[in-house]
User: Which sequence fits this backbone?
């Protein structure tokens, strides 16, 4: 079966495509702009940092060389150079240090670090480098660029100069740029969507007018027409639709005539089947009546009461059959009323217990339905359930094989459907007659004990409620399930 998708108008589809294109183009432009600015800021930071450490490396090397030659005393100049680096205005310097070739601190912005030996991987990498290197690190939760420049001249190495430059100002600038990009994209998208909506409305208006005209067609059965009034593609569609309506007018007239003939034929055939069944069922008790009356008229005597009893039984049987035929004819007349589920089930349970009174049978009820309001024909559903209960009693508790049997009435609520199940542990229904048990006049009971109309009438009542009546064999239990769809209304009383 092909998959069905929800309805979307052309204007909605146009807007969806426009939204995707607008947001996509804004995202691409914003991402490209952000990436370009991010790269530019990093390059600028790297370039300025490289200039700083490269420039400061020369006087630091000179100071170390002068100290080695004994021209100046140790320490003073290096501390001044570190202080000068820390005071650089364009960069936010977090630390500056001079390490000898063994990683020992010769000068540091924190005096307490003097003499400390740095043996970490970052320091070893900086000491082994031949040229300027930059490594991004995280220092106390702050993103920092570690800039290292080797201190070497003509193959002679004195260590390295390391400077930590905070990258947070650059990331803050990127954050502001990101916000600006989002704001501009939002304003641009809103303006573009407004324009797209106006264009979509303008394009969809002729189609909407044609749709309204099509919906109005048929409200008056005698006026299935539409008048073309455009000279474009919509006008061609109007002409095609008008021609189709003319064909539909002719087809509708032919269909109505065919349906009337079919209904008449079905009515005649149904009446014939019912009359045939009724005639068959009525003729047998009439034959008994005629025989009994014959004996009354010609024999008389002490046995007259027995024959009178036979006449009475036959007459009662005819009355039952005629009454059930009347029920069948009225099965489609449903009077829906709102009832409380709990009180409705209590009434069903009470009438069912009255039906099993005096019979060697255990009758149980279970109400698993929450307190809700049901909309149904109370009397008709009572008729269905009592018929099912009586059938279950006949199949279970009055059978000599199934003495002391059990019949259960169970109510449930599933998926906005009210379910009533009648279960018994009787012998069940043979597989070869399951398809016939709901056929009028079909019965498995002994002659004179059933007319075969109960299940047929019950299924008709269920179907006129929009529900079903089904038979199942579950394990060792026979189950009839009456299902009635109802919109749930929680009962607050």
Assistant:
């Amino acid at each position: 079966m092909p998959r069905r998708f929800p309805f979307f108008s052309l204007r909605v589809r146009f807007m969806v495509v426009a939204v995707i294109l607008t947001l996509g183009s804004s995202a691409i432009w914003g991402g490209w702009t952000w990436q370009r600015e991010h790269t530019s800021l990093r390059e600028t930071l790297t370039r300025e940092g490289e200039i700083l450490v490269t420039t400061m490396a020369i006087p630091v090397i000179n100071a170390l060389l002068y100290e080695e030659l004994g021209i100046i005393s140790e320490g003073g100049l290096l501390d001044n150079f570190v202080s000068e680096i820390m005071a650089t205005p364009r960069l936010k310097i977090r630390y500056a240090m001079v390490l000898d070739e063994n990683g020992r601190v010769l000068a540091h912005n924190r005096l307490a670090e003097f003499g400390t030996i740095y043996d970490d991987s970052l320091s070893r990498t900086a000491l082994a480098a031949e040229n300027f290197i930059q490594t991004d690190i995280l220092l106390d939760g702050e993103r920092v660029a570690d800039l290292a420049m080797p201190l070497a001249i003509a193959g002679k190495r004195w260590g390295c100069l390391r400077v930590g430059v905070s990258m947070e100002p650059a990331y803050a600038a990127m954050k502001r740029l990101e916000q600006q990009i989002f704001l501009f994209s939002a304003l641009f998208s809103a303006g573009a969507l407004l324009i797209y909506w106006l264009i979509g409305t303008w394009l969809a208006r002729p189609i909407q007018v044609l749709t309204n005209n099509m919906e109005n067609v048929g409200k008056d059965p005698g006026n299935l027409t539409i008048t073309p009034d455009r000279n474009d593609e919509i006008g061609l569609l109007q002409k095609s639709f008008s021609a189709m309506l003319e064909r539909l007018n002719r087809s509708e007239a032919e269909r109505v005539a065919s349906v009337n003939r079919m209904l008449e034929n079905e009515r005649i055939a149904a009446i014939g089947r019912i009359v045939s069944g009724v005639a068959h069922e009525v003729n047998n008790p009439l034959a008994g009546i005629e025989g009994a009356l014959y004996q009354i008229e010609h024999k008389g005597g002490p046995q007259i009461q027995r024959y009178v009893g036979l006449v009475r039984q036959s007459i009662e049987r005819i009355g039952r059959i005629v009454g059930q035929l009347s029920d069948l004819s009225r099965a489609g007349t449903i009077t829906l009323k709102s009832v409380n589920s709990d009180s409705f089930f209590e009434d069903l349970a009470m009438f069912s217990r009255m039906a099993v009174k005096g019979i060697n049978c255990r009758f149980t009820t279970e109400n698993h339905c929450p307190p809700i309001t049901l909309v149904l024909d109370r009397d008709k559903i009572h008729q269905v359930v009592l018929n099912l209960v009586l059938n279950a009693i006949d199949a279970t508790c009055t059978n000599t094989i199934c003495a002391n049997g059990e019949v259960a009435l169970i109510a449930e609520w599933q998926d906005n459907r009210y379910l009533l199940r009648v279960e018994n542990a009787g012998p069940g229904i043979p597989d070869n007659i399951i398809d016939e048990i709901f056929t009028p006049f079909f019965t498995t009971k002994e002659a004179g004990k059933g007319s075969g109309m109960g299940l047929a009438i019950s299924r008709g009542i269920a179907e006129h409620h929009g529900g079903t009546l089904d038979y199942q064999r579950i394990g060792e239990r026979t189950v009839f399930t009456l299902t009635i769809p109802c919109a749930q209304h929680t009962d607050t009383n």
In short: The chain is about 55% helix and 20% strand. Residues 10-174 form a domain with the Beta-Lactamase fold (CATH 3.30.450.20). The chain has three domains: 10-174, 221-329, 333-485.
